[in-house]
Amino acid sequence: MAVPPKPPTHRASGPGGRPTESRPGPAAQRDFVGDRRQTWGGVAGLGARVAPGVNVGVSVDQSHTAIDVPLALQSATLDLTQIGVNASVDRGPWTWAIALVHGFGKIDSSRDTGFGTASAGYNAHIDGALTELSYYWSLDQSRIVPKAAFEYVRAATGSLQEFGGLDPVTATGVTLERSRLLVGAEVGHYWIVDRKIFDLSAYGKFVDNVAQNLGATTVSLGTESITVQGIGESRYGADAGASASLCLSNSARLYVNYDGRYRAALQSHQGTVGVELKW
Prior knowledge:
This protein is mostly beta strands. The protein is 0% helix and 70% strand. The model is unreliable at 1-29 (pLDDT under 50).
């Protein structure tokens, strides 16, 4: 049963911990086969300035993730809804921001047993918090923005019961928690062309997963069972990305973003295209 961690974005990482292959066996744990994942979705939100230097906002993220584990003849889908609130306070070049996220989703998995398909469906939940402090250093039409952030995520998936196929399995629910520090900077430059502002920026962050509490799931087949520990990220890694935006007016902006995550045994790439309207 292939079950994703989903990340966020607000996005942060999310429900997971299932093994990609589950067969009864001895105490030694087998290797995990790899998987390929694709995610599509959209984000909508509202923001307001409630006082000089104080901003608040709310947004909703709806996404669909398809997971394929070809070597294990397994696949799964995750439909996830995330609701987030955020706030920021500006004091001169300093900005402090905080964001809170709650997500809930539905996972459907299927596994080719050789004598039919074994399928299952179960729920997932994710909660996260992020706080960030940054300093805006302006250089004419360029900028350098050092940033430091702390992130906490808790994700859980429900128990699983397969139906159909040969030897359907069951698995207990699992919960994971992760806390991490992110330190890095953004650099950018803008141009004014025909009364429109074109902006390019890029960022890089060092990531330290200071704590990962990875729950275990027990997979049962008949009278046999095996307990499998959840899989986490490497302790250290990096995030990097780039963005381009075109401000058509004071109330309309087009943008395209790229975000990448780089870990010892994982790479994640995400692209976003959007339009922002203000009133």
